[in-house]
Amino acid sequence: MKSYDKLFIGGRWVAPAKNGCFETIDPCSEEVIAQVAAATAEDVDLAVAAARHAFDEGPWPRMSGVQRGAVLRRIGKGIRARLDELAKLEVRDNGKPLPEALWDLGDAAGCFEYYAGLAERLDAHTETPVALSDDRFSSIARKEPVGVAGAIIPWNFPMLMAAWKVAPALAAGCTMVLKPSELTPLTALELADIAAAAELPAGVLNVITGLGPDAGAPLSEHPGIDKLAFTGSVPTGSRIMQAAARDIKNVSLELGGKSPFIVFDDSDIDAAVEWIMFGIFWNQGEVCSATSRVLVQRGIYDRLVTRLEEETRKITIGNGLDEGVLLGPLVSRGQYDKVRAAVARGREEGARLVTGGERPAHLDRGYFMTPVVFADVPEQSWIWQEEVFGPVVCIRPFEDEAEAVRSANDSRFGLAAAVMSRDMARCERVARRLRAGIVWINCSQPTFTEAPWGGYKQSGIGRELGEWGLNNYLEVKQITRYESDKPWAWYMKSR
Ligand code: NAI
Ligand code: MG
């Protein structure tokens, strides 16, 4: 394994100030795969200074969108050129099955290409006239990059989460400091190399690896940062928002969820089972938008739970690099313990464990757990209300549409929701009543770079992806001009 003991600051690989390292682990073998540079506050200072200098003095914010777009396209191409190698690295660091890692990496490249297009279009839309009620004045609204962005990202989709923040920030003309999760830091460091090879000017993208309290906290508190973009847990999101409050930093947060999936009894049971499984077992259920709370109408409840059990038991678990594997290990020992504790708690609370929650018989190491189906889950239980972030689905029956909508909305989260029925009018009606930022009809989880992504309630603030993602990194300036030949003459009345 190559070495990952340096930070990428100001266009160069530099040793961390304290020369510290932390280990990143392959969750399948439980072996250390690399020693990774551990940034501390001093490194954060250097990285922010490099980004600040690149923003204030460098070419990047002053280039045309077309010029920035060309660099973004080269980054996309650079990812595609190394797709297999990067996907395998992601599997080793995170555990996910290789086909899913390939999918993530392709989407990450696609994200850079998409924002290349928006950067190119920005040139024609940077300044737009504003119609005023007083024709002595004229005004325009002008989009400008927000400045230096600090991006802190999680471990579930390491490269893709980096792309969701880096691509729009760069398209907007921002410079940035990116801190990946200490559990999966490797592909972000590779992204730094790819960006440099794509001729991104020095200091525009700085990548610092390190622990949350040692590197993430000083980044979120740094006065040189204009904007913070975070994806991760609610408690950390709250801490970041508090840090941002002191200097009134612009913040966007994409946090957790406990997203509902409503299945009406006119649905095709096999189609429902397929989407329910994709909604919660994809990426080991370590997905912020996972539809982990399933509401099934009484008429098909028993049959659906039985079919779901049969299919869940067939899921192939193992090393993400092995052919045919659909479920890899959980990301870390900590996450494994957390999910196991959640399953135990669900049983204590009276949820019926239909299947799963065990170590697969053929795997004696690695953070593996058989996928879990809980039925008849009490509505006020912890397991029904709180995010597990693992392959654990909770199911409850409902009688009618009003009950389904009420129960689905009974949550402090509001990231995603799904509804399934053959009655399209009903699906459309329910979709409009669900308090969530993303609603899927007759499916769960498909994600498109073009469409807005983000949560209601405690699931976050702001929207990523699409044009909304670009606006996240833009300020809007009003420039207003006095057009009249007549003197204003308020104080100095014309005599
Ligand atoms: P976390 O939210 O603590 O970590 C996410 C990122 O924040 C990492 O880069 C981490 O280094 C950084 N961070 C941690 N403490 C920080 C601080 N004080 N200041 C600034 N940055 C800090 O998530 P963690 O600990 O990896 O996972 C805990 C739980 O969070 C999971 O079990 C899961 O429930 C949830 N989670 C949700 C995600 C989502 O996409 N919504 C993603 C990852 C985790
Ligand atoms: Mg790892």
Description:
Belongs to the aldehyde dehydrogenase family. One of its GO terms (molecular function) is oxidoreductase activity, acting on the aldehyde or oxo group of donors, NAD or NADP as acceptor. Pfam families: Aldedh. 40% of the residues lie in helices and 21% in strands. The protein has 15 helices and 22 strands. A hairpin with a 2-residue loop joins strand 1 and strand 2. The site of magnesium ion has 5 residues, from strand 3.
Strand order of the largest sheet: 14-15-16-13-12-18-19
- Tell me the structural class: alpha/beta
- Write the CATH architecture name of the largest domain: 3-Layer(aba) Sandwich
Shape: globular
Q: Provide the number of structural domains.
A: 2
Write down the Rg: 24 Å
Mean pLDDT, as a whole number? 97
From the structure provided, what is the oligomeric state, counting identical versus distinct chains? Answer: single chain
Strand portion: 15-25%
Uncertain regions spanning at least 5 consecutive residues? none
The total count of strands amounts to 22
Count of helical regions: 15
Q: Major beta sheet, specifics?
A: 7 strands, mixed
> Helical percent range?
40-55%
Bound molecules: 1,4-dihydronicotinamide adenine dinucleotide, magnesium ion
CATH class of the largest domain, named: Alpha Beta
